[in-house]
Amino acid sequence: MEQQELKKYKILFVCLGNICRSPSAEAVMKHVVEQRGLSHLFEIDSAGILSYHQGEPADQRMQQHARKRGFELTSISRPVKTDDFWHFDLIIGMDDGNIRDLYIRTPDVESSRKVVRMSRFFRTDRGYDHVPDPYYGGAQGFELVLDMLQEACEELVDQLLADNGELIEKRD
Ligand code: 4NP
Fold this sequence. Notes:
It is a single chain. By secondary structure, the chain is an alpha/beta fold. The protein is built from six helices and four strands; from the N terminus they run βαβααβααβα. The chain has a four-stranded parallel β-sheet with strand order 2-1-3-4. α1 (21-35) crosses α6 (139-163) and α2 (60-68) crosses α6 (139-163). The longest helix is centred in the last third of the chain and has 25 residues, at 139-163. The protein is globular. 4-nitrophenyl phosphate binds at residues 15-21, 52, 133, 135. 4-nitrophenyl phosphate (4NP) is lined by residues 15-21, 52, 133, 135.
């Protein structure tokens, strides 16, 4: 019997510096799909709008808060590149600035349709339409980011499984 090839979802999380929010989203998403036994169905990565922190590990504060919840942030900061828009199926920005900057960088109309905002997957109304940048704030900001990302990643996987990939056909 011929085996049907499984569709692999390629997801790129993007924030400004790729040292706080998007590396956390990457780690949380990897954890969620692993827990559900779906790792083989996903390719998950993260990148930043800025190249300022290129080559750096995730922010120490972000790492500490994430580790307390069982997430190891292992990615190294890199900026978004043109090839990302062709390679990934979904490119998920954390806030309005990220979405705007991603649209500016999209090489063609087709890839601009892959850009979505993370808040689209929020289940709880915390009064935010974005994942707020925790970089210049205190501990609460890092915890809030993780609360939002954990919830949104669960919802994202639910939606992807439910609509069999149609999510990538819908633009924000
Ligand atoms: P991130 O946080 O976008 O969540 O990685 C930031 C990290 C660094 C800077 C801004 C936001 N920065 O201005 O250097």
